[in-house]
C-alpha cells in the first residue's frame, strides 16, 4: 500500500535533508565559537575592556546553552538571530576599541552568517554587519588602513551574498529533483506527506475542506508485457498530461507508484471530489494512447477520501487506499468514496 511506502521515506524529504545539513554545519560553528571565546575573554579581561568582557561572556553563555541542548535539537530562527546580533555587535565594538585586532575577526563572522541564517535574513544581517564594521573602521583606524579594511569587507560581503543566493537556488533545485517524478513531471512520494499535513492543518485550524483521489490504471501490466516498457512509459506520460488538463491550479498531482496516481485538492466537498474523480476517469477512458504500433484505450479505478479534523496523513491515505482497493474488487473503471469517520474516530 502507498501508506507503507511513505512511512519508509518520511524522514527523507528534501526540506528535512537540507535543514539537517544546515543544522549540523551551524552546530559545528557554535562548538568552534565556544573554543574561541574563552581565550578572547581572557585577553579582553587582561586589557581591562570590561564591556567587551561582558559581551563575550554573554556570547559564551549563549553558545554553551546551544551546545548543551545537543546537535539534534532544532534551533529556532529567533535564537540564531539573537546570536548573530550579539556576535556582530561584539565584533563592531572590538574594531572600535582594538582597531585592526578587532577587524581580523569580522571576516569569519561575516562568512559564517550564510550558514547560520536562511537566505533572506543572511543577506539582511550580512549587509547590516558589513556597514557597522565599515563605520567602525572609518572612525577607529588610520585612513590608509581603514579604506583597505572597508574594501575587503565589501568584497567579502559580495562573495557572501553571491554564495547565499547560489545555495538557496541549489537547495530549491535539489528539492525539485528529489520531489519530482522524472518520467511524468508529477510530484512523487517525497512531497506527499508535506501536502497532506498542510491540508490536515488547514482543516483543523480553519475547517477547510480537502479531498484525496487515488487513481490506478486498470490492466496496465499487460500493456508492459505486450507492448514493452518503453510504450508503457509513454502511456504513463500521456495519462499524467490527461490528468493535469483536468485539474485546476489548486490541485496537486502525484505519481505514487508504477501506474498509481494521487490528486489532493483543497476547498472540495466530498460530493465535489466524487464528481471530479468521475470526470478524471472519463477523461482517461476517452483518451487514445499512442504507442509505436498504434493506439490503445485505458481505464482507471479511483478511491476518494475527504479530510476530517481527527485525521493523520496515514489515516486519511489509508481510507483512500482502501476505497481504491474496493473499486478494483468491484470490477474496475469506477469510483468508490470512503465513508467519513466521526470526529472522535
From TrEMBL:
Q: Which SMART domains match?
A: GGDEF (SM00267)
- Its Enzyme Commission number(s) read 2.7.7.65
Q: Name one Pfam family in it.
A: GGDEF
As cofactor, the record names: Mg(2+)
Protein name, per record = diguanylate cyclase
Q: Which reaction does it catalyse?
A: 2 GTP = 3',3'-c-di-GMP + 2 diphosphate
CDD domains named in the record: GGDEF
Its Gene Ontology biological processes? cell adhesion involved in single-species biofilm formation; negative regulation of bacterial-type flagellum-dependent cell motility
SUPFAM superfamilies listed in its UniProt record: Nucleotide cyclase
Q: Where are the transmembrane segments?
A: 25-43, 49-68, 75-96, 147-167
Q: Does the keyword Transmembrane apply?
A: yes
Domain GGDEF residue range list: 208-340
Keywords carried by this UniProt record: Membrane, Transmembrane, Transmembrane helix
Question: What species does this protein belong to?
Answer: Idiomarina xiamenensis 10-D-4
> What does the entry list under GO cellular component?
plasma membrane
An MF annotation (GO) of this entry: diguanylate cyclase activity
Amino acid at each position: 500500500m502507498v501508506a507503507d511506502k511513505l512511512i519508509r521515506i518520511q524522514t527523507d524529504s528534501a526540506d528535512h535533508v537540507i535543514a539537517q545539513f544546515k543544522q549540523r554545519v551551524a552546530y559545528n560553528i557554535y562548538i568552534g565559537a565556544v573554543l574561541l571565546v574563552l581565550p578572547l575573554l581572557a585577553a579582553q579581561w587582561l586589557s581591562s575592556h570590561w564591556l567587551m568582557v561582558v559581551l563575550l561572556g554573554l556570547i559564551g553563555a549563549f553558545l554553551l546553552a546551544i551546545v548543551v541542548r545537543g546537535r539534534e535539537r532544532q534551533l529556532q530562527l529567533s535564537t540564531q538571530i539573537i546570536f548573530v546580533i550579539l556576535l556582530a555587535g561584539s565584533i563592531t565594538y572590538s574594531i572600535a576599541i582594538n582597531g585592526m585586532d578587532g577587524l581580523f575577526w569580522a571576516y569569519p563572522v561575516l562568512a559564517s552568517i550564510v550558514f547560520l541564517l536562511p537566505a533572506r535574513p543572511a543577506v539582511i544581517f550580512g549587509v547590516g554587519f558589513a556597514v557597522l564594521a565599515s563605520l567602525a573602521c572609518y572612525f577607529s583606524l588610520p585612513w590608509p588602513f581603514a579604506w583597505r579594511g572597508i574594501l575587503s569587507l565589501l568584497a567579502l560581503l559580495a562573495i557572501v551574498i553571491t554564495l547565499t543566493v547560489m545555495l538557496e537556488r541549489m537547495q530549491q533545485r535539489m528539492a525539485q529533483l528529489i520531489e519530482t517524478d522524472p518520467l511524468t513531471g508529477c510530484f512523487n512520494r517525497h512531497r506527499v506527506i508535506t501536502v497532506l499535513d498542510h491540508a490536515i492543518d488547514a482543516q483543523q485550524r480553519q475547517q477547510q475542506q480537502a479531498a484525496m483521489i487515488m487513481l490506478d490504471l486498470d490492466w496496465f501490466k499487460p500493456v508492459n508485457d505486450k507492448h514493452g516498457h518503453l510504450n508503457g512509459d509513454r502511456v504513463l506520460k500521456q495519462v499524467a498530461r490527461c490528468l493535469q488538463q483536468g485539474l485546476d491550479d489548486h490541485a496537486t498531482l502525484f505519481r505514487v507508484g508504477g501506474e498509481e496516481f494521487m490528486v489532493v485538492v483543497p476547498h472540495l466537498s466530498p460530493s465535489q471530489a466524487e464528481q471530479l474523480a468521475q470526470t478524471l476517469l472519463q477523461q482517461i477512458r476517452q483518451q487514445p494512447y499512442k504507442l509505436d504500433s498504434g493506439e490503445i484505450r485505458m481505464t482507471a479505478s479511483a478511491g476518494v477520501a475527504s479530510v476530517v479534523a481527527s485525521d493523520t496523513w496515514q489515516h486519511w491515505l489509508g481510507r483512500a487506499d482502501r476505497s481504491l482497493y474496493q473499486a478494483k474488487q468491484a470490477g474496475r473503471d469506477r469510483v468508490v468514496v470512503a465513508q467519513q469517520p466521526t470526529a472522535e474516530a
